[in-house]
Amino acid sequence: MTQPDDHSFPALRARYGERYRWLLLMSVMVGTMASIMSSTIINVAIPDMSLHFTLGQERAQWATSGFMAAMTVSMLTTPWLLARYGYRHTYMGCMALLLAGGVAGGFANHYPLVLAARVAEGLAAGVVQPIPAIIILRAFEPHEQGRASGIFGMGVVLAPAIGPSIGGILVDGFGWRSIFFMVVPFCLASMWMAQRFVSTSAPGGGAANPQGAALDWRGLLLATVGTLCLLNGLVELRGDAPALGVALLGVAALVVLGFVVLQRRMLRARRRGPETGSDPLMNLSLFKDRRFAMGSIVAVIYGTALFGSTYLLPVYMQMGLGLSPSFVGTVLLPAGLLLAITIAVVGRLSDRQPTHRLVSLGLALLAASFALMLTIDGRDATRTATLLVAWAILGRIGLGFILPSLNTGAMRGLERHLIPQGSSVINFLRMLGGAAGVSLCGIVLEWRLAAHGAQLGGGDQTARLAAFDETFLMLATLCGLALIAAWRLRADPNAT
Questions:
Q1: Which element (helix H / strand E) includes 113?
Q2: Of the candidates 180, 255, 381, 456, which lies 20 to 30 Å from 117 by C-alpha distance?
């Protein structure tokens, strides 16, 4: 008989029965939706925020860049936090930090305080996002994991789809500060649910160990420096200091090399004396599993294509085709809604179909949507609108095949104790690819504009569209390369 104060995973499952795993999934889904919404909704408030604090565009964009950098790096700390403090305390701590960041940002009277609030929100969002995949792989049977991923993915995709629309209404009605307060009800609801349904256990079902191994601070520092150098280097390549950009990318490469050497040494030391030292921030033995290694490659390229196209499509429609912002939103809305539906359907399919087939089909559709953008010339308004909607839908359907399949498929071959690390690493790589993808699209677009003698804000439309077409072809090529890795996600028929 379980005690009333027993909040371990087995006790909660005994208390709530078969429905418990779904209550657990809903609890973490609400918080993850809040974290994802906070990452995208700020964009609609940047013009008003810039006016309020008299900022230039570059300084204002740090409200987004600071969040993304903090989120990307903090993902690597999730396994350590879960082992030390357990699911409930880690999750509720992140929700409290996200809530505090939202309230502080909403009341801030100085821009540095806004940036600090955004970094705090990013740290919380990064730790939270690997948790659902860990829970799905541990709480659900293999034949249910796809369905669970589909339901979770549908909720998470709807957050950024509806967030900007709600955000625009809030900014018009109540000002830019209301954007920060939008996370408050989600955080409070998630904390209420977590208090009831999220276990205090650590991954594996055992009790959390607050006196466990110390965090790999050296690895975290190197990962932070490497990420910042990479992202800032790519930004500088687009600016007036390309030499500085190259230098920063060189530093990033050296830091990554140092990070790999450090992680290998820590892993060897841990194996020699399991009771001494600390776990490496990134367990490199993960990559010995072929499916995980291939899934990681797909995750980086997929993140690059997803975030890069999210930046490129609105710029293409407004600056390339001369369409209004409201029309752009109208074009992209059906694609966003179909993405949510596709994820739910494919989630069920992934319980019966091999991962490599679903991910490969998704990448093929995504590549086709980019390549087919070349069929749009902007001369016939009706034809242009029809093709934009069609190709946007095709690409989002492709994303719908990838999202619920990739994480679980890449990690199914891992030993159970490596699942938290696996979820953390694959999410980190996806976000790193995404953060780099925005700059990569910008760099390629500016390069091709210069090659065609065109300008983004005017000049010959034919030359400008040619530059956009070549940038879309770059994204299509990347997705094509990812197909090679995706096909190798299939299970080894000789494995036992």
A1: helix 111-128
A2: 255
What is the per-residue pLDDT across 124-173, written as a single tens digit (0 to 9) for each? Answer: 999 998 888 888 877 788 778 878 887 787 777 766 666 666 766 777 77
Residues 352 and 276 in one domain: no
Domain span at 33? 1-205
Final residue belonging to a domain, choices 163, 179, 205: 205
Q: What distances in angstroms separate CA 117 from CA 98, 100, 109, 129, one per listed residue?
A: 9, 8, 12, 19
408 contacts 426 by C-beta, under 8 angstroms: no
β partners of residue 458: 455
Q: Do 154 and 248 belong to one domain? A: no
Q: For the chain, what is the domain count? A: 3
Domain boundary pick from 255, 280, 305: 280
Contact (CB, 8 A) for 365 and 401: yes
Are both 306 and 250 inside the same structural domain?
A: no
493: which residues sit within 8 A by CB, 6+ positions away?
none
| Terminal-residue alpha carbon distance, the chain | 38
Give residue 319's identity as a one-letter amino acid code.
M
Contacts of 251 (CB under 8 A, 6+ apart): 225, 229, 233
Residue 1 has pLDDT above 50, yes or no: no
DSSP one-letter code for 206: S
Rounded to an integer, what distance in angstroms lies between the CA atom of residue 70 and that of residue 87? 21
